[in-house]
């Protein structure tokens, strides 16, 4: 009922673009997406080639430094990260204060904010060395925090990182290892998880990255900006979708596995019923990451003794959706989240941890985007305008006369 055109006339030259559907907030040289063609490149390199050939730390270096590292550069980068994986002892006790059933995304964002209290001498966004050491600390400590968020939920003691281990192996060992048992990382699992982190590493100006940039544009420190990104990612329309997909598949299974009737409810736009893991603001074609994840899910789940019936439901959902006019006409295809949850489940992660895994993967992208923003002379504090729709001026009524 709001007459937008008259509001626009009153306000002057203001663009109303709710949800920033068609408004660029910055220039960026990091990630290229062609949503119509289903193309994604980091720093010019196709996602398919990076997923196939590059490790997560290699891609992190690429995103942050705009070049594929030489072997010596990669070794130096990995070593720097390796020696920063420990959390301060006081920081470890922080985890005991949360309730056992705390959502690990809330624990993660609180812990990232808390990191800034330990490194107060390195928070200046304008100091290159301080930004570099903060970036290294974040990359090194996020897996430790993520593992502790998991341990908190299962009531296990918090282990120390083992700095002789590669990045992903160290995370898996901290998450699933127990002091009472020998834990050997399954190299196939480590490889797939590393590849999934590569697929999540950046995605230009999505909701969480835009949040990181917006908070950083006020010259808030890197930890504060990344914590805000974690919070944005937690929403079910963004990173939280990977958990929401699994909840949806489980619900369909519980209700007898009737995929067709679920799709009908989606098409009838029943309140709260969406095909989670489908649709994307930018991709109007198959999400290139989803194609890679689907293959990985097939590979991972085919090695299991008992195939997961949820995979069958997911295949069927995709098949129906891709041939149904509702989805075809709206160009709704599976996004990166549609199959990741099934892989994480097969790896042994509880659903609540799925979005934390997304955050671990997205971290180098957030850092690279924040650094690009803070070093861009064109950056200004982010401050959108609005079209005011409230009351016109009215006289104040004293409390006794209301
Ligand atoms: N299921 C059913 N219908 C959908 C879906 C879906 N998953 N997504 C979009 N639609 C419909 C909308 O109802 C709308 O229909 P209408 O034209 O009849 O009103 C049309 O498609 C356009 O959708 P919008 O909501 O306008 O698209 P928008 O770009 O704002 O939203 C989003 C994109 C949030 C990703 C949306 O597709 C969605 O909610 N998907 C499910 C959640 C999800 O998987 N999120 C993960 C995104 S990827 C990521 O963050 C990593």
From TrEMBL:
GO terms for cellular component: cytoplasm. It catalyses: oxaloacetate + acetyl-CoA + H2O = citrate + CoA + H(+). The keyword Lipoprotein does not apply. Pfam families: Citrate_synt. Keywords: Transferase, Tricarboxylic acid cycle. The active site is at 280, 337. GO terms for molecular function: citrate synthase activity. CDD domains: EcCS_like. GO terms for biological process: tricarboxylic acid cycle. Pathway: Carbohydrate metabolism; tricarboxylic acid cycle; isocitrate from oxaloacetate: step 1/2. NCBIfam families: cit_synth_I (TIGR01798), PRK05614.1 (NF004126). Belongs to the citrate synthase family. This is Citrate synthase. The gene is gltA.
């Amino acid at each position: 009922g709001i007459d937008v055109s008259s509001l626009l006339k009153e306000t002057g030259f203001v663009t109303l673009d709710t949800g920033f559907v068609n408004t660029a907030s910055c220039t960026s040289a990091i990630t290229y997406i062609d949503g119509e063609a289903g193309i994604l490149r980091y720093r010019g390199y196709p996602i398919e080639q990076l997923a196939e050939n590059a490790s997560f730390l290699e891609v992190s270096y690429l995103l942050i430094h705009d070049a594929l590292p030489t072997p010596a550069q990669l070794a130096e980068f990995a070593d720097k990260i390796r020696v920063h994986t420990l959390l301060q002892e006081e920081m470890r006790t922080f985890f005991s204060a949360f309730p056992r059933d705390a959502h690990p995304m809330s624990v993660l964002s609180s812990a990232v904010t808390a990191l800034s209290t330990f490194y107060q001498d390195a928070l200046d966004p304008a100091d290159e060395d301080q930004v570099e050491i903060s970036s290294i600390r974040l990359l090194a400590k996020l897996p430790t925090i993520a593992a502790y968020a998991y341990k908190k939920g299962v009531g296990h003691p918090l282990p120390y990182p083992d700095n002789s281990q590669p990045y992903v192996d160290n995370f898996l060992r901290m998450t699933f290892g127990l002091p009472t048992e020998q834990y050997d990382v399954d190299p196939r699992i480590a490889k797939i998880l590393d590849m999934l982190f590569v697929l999540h590493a950046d995605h230009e100006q999505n909701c969480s990255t835009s949040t990181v940039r917006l908070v950083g544009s006020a010259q808030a420190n890197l930890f504060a900006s990344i914590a805000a990104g974690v919070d944005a990612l937690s929403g079910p329309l963004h990173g939280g979708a990977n958990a929401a997909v699994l909840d949806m598949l489980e619900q369909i299974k519980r209700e007898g596995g009737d995929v067709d009737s679920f799709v009908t409810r989606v098409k009838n736009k029943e309140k709260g019923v969406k095909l989670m893991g489908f649709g994307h603001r930018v991709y109007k074609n198959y999400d290139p990451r989803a194609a890679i994840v689907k293959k990985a899910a097939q590979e991972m789940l085919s090695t299991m003794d008992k195939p997961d019936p949820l995979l069958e439901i997911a295949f069927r959902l995709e098949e129906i959706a891709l041939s149904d006019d509702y989805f075809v006409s709206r160009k709704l295809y599976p996004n990166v989240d549609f199959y990741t949850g099934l892989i994480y489940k097969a790896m042994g992660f509880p659903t609540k941890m799925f979005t934390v895994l997304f955050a671990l993967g997205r971290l180098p992208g957030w850092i690279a985007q924040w650094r690009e923003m803070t070093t861009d002379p064109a950056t200004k504090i982010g401050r959108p305008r609005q079209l005011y729709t409230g009351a016109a001026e009215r006289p104040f009524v004293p409390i006794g006369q209301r």
